Amino acid sequence: MGRRGTKIARLAAAGAAAGVLVAAIVIPAVGGAGAGFVAAAEEVNLAPADLTEPPPAEVTIVRDAKGGEIARFYEEYREVVGFDEISPVMKTAIVAIEDFRFYQHGAIDIEGTLRALATNLRSGGVSQGGSSITQQYVKQVLFNAATTDEDRHAALEASYARKLNELRYAMGIEEKYTKDEILAKYLNIAYFGASAYGVEAAAKRFFGTHAADLTLPQAATLAGAVQDPNATDPNLGRAQRDRLLKRRNVVLDRMAELGEITADQAAEAKAAKLGYKGTRLPGGCESSKYPYFCLYVRQEILSNPDFGPTAETRLARLNRGGLTITTTLDPGMQAAAEQAVARYVHPSDAPVAAQALVQPGTGAIRAMAASRRYGTKAARNEISYNVVADAAHGGGIGFQPGSTMKTFTLITALKQGMKLDDGLAAGAGYRAPSYATFKNCAGQSIGDPGHTVTNDEGSPGWKTLRSGTWNSVNTFFMELEERVGLCETVRTAKSLGVRRADGKKLQEYETFTLGINESDPVTIATAYAAIAARGEYCAPMAVTRITGRDGESTRYRPRCRQALDPAVADATAEVLSGVFTKGTMRGVGGLGRDAAGKTGTTDDYASAWFAGFTPDLAGAVSLGDPRGSQRYKLTGVTIGGRYYGSVQGASIPGPIWRDTMLSALRGVPPTAFTPVDQARFGGCAESCRPEKQDPEPTPLGTAEPETPTTGAPVTETTAPAAETPDVTLDPGDILN
């Protein structure tokens, strides 16, 4: 026989030892390329080897708090199904065309392998496969487990060493699993084309059905696709579909030849059209019902070490892990937010309204809504970033929150011992007495005696903590911030989670209290939720549980800390509740339950806000033009089909918030605010209005405009206003 023939016979013997039925075959004289095989055979021990089988990449499903599906994330769209969840005709078709002796031979189909070997030796290379289904499964596992291009190339290279290695692993697989189990594993890992991995995803993608319900023509089509899924990808065009149709008919002929179906059945199936539907596979935030919340969840997982030690492991876990992610989103509250936003702002309007709802005491984000649909193709009436959140969660630079920031100066005054009826004399304009009047937290003097802050129509006179807040008097809050300290006000805001939407440091200028730092609805809603929770700040929370494909779950709990003295929070809620009855929201009205809040309008009407809370739910609404709020003001604009000469916090954001809360809290029993500690905050201390002080020129019930229209713009006290679109990134490049 010769030495090389002996080596080949030894290979046959190894196959027989593994339970392989060896068929007689004439082994040709070999030379040239055969030497490579012999060398490899001498080096590789053909004994069963244990194959490490990392689970194939599988779809991650994101669900809302009620169990409804929000989105799917995946690198390879795959849904693993059991053997019994695959139609019998699908199993028959794939065995017929790929390995018709699959249930008769062991790990190695010696007849097929030796036939392929003979052909390859004659051709001087590897031109014919001869792989069994078990070997094909092994190759798929090795390829999917590869983490580098070099490993992926090694898994597919045309070499005898690689083939022998596959045989060793295949022998181990045959010892480890039944034939049915191996077939199910192969059908779940194979790629069928059109971005469908595994038979279940392929059944859905190609035909809009399940693997269990595949018909004969459909099963033959999928069985034919695995040989060269790129060449027969029906999603690529007519030529590929024609090739797939021909390949389907080859499978049908082979099934008839083997007696698995009759000639008539084959003819009938071949007469059927291809039937490719191209069903859109679910997944990604662009196709989600709740795209902004979806973006928030995705970015939270990718950036939070709680979900993995590195960005790479977090991404792999999200896209390949087959996880079920349970979130905080409440579909009823989400619907309430969406409907209220749509009632006042249309998708075609230039300004965009955005709203976030947050649960006090947990930080759970219950809703995220905007007036425009999210989209990455810059289509009309779409926006390509998360307008509800900060840049760390797929957002842009946000909008200046205006007078909603006055709340933190109020809180600072209460922390320092001022009582509710304590007050200050507010002039028609405010100018810092000297450069040293205001100091930032670095101890630097940043006062600007050359800049005057004014009130729109002027309201000089004595203002208490209550009335100054209700009427949102700019000069009062500048005087108050001077008294309590700029740095102290900044620290209060930071303690409640306030930060810039772009991730940069807060700008610590004297007009901090007037809302010069761009922020986002999630951040502001969370800060106000802490007041509602009697000073307990809880970081924004979107994920409550992650369940792995093995069924094991990890729960995530709120991250909370006591940021304010509860009595200070109670007193703040007391003051802010008057905004609905005696202040800037008087014309809009309340909820019929305890509620508190603050309107916000920035200098020259660049943006408008409302932030408010009940003991059960907090929310913040922003309105601004994403093309650049400093360039495109909210003046002389038509929004929601209505013309506005100027838009303030109570014009649109306030009504959106009110309508949202009325709907979102329907059926939720009202909870009352904790009464103010009168001994601590009632009345006034040394700064009650002097008896000879002229009475306040403006009644408490009169809502005054919140922003100056004369004097230097607020933003000029800090940094030049951005004239570029309020976007810092396009998440479409990284999210889909």
From TrEMBL:
Residues 357-623 form the Penicillin-binding protein transpeptidase domain. Keywords: Carboxypeptidase, Glycosyltransferase, Hydrolase, Multifunctional enzyme, Protease, Transferase. It comes from the Bacteria. It comes from Nonomuraea maheshkhaliensis. InterPro entries: Beta-lactam/transpept-like (IPR012338), Glyco_trans_51 (IPR001264), Glycosyltr_51/Transpeptidase (IPR050396), Lysozyme-like_dom_sf (IPR023346), PBP_transglycosylase (IPR036950), PCN-bd_Tpept (IPR001460). Residues 699-725 have a biased composition (Low complexity). Residues 685-736 are annotated as: Disordered. This is Transglycosylase domain-containing protein. Coiled coil: none annotated. Residues 68-255 form the Glycosyl transferase family domain.
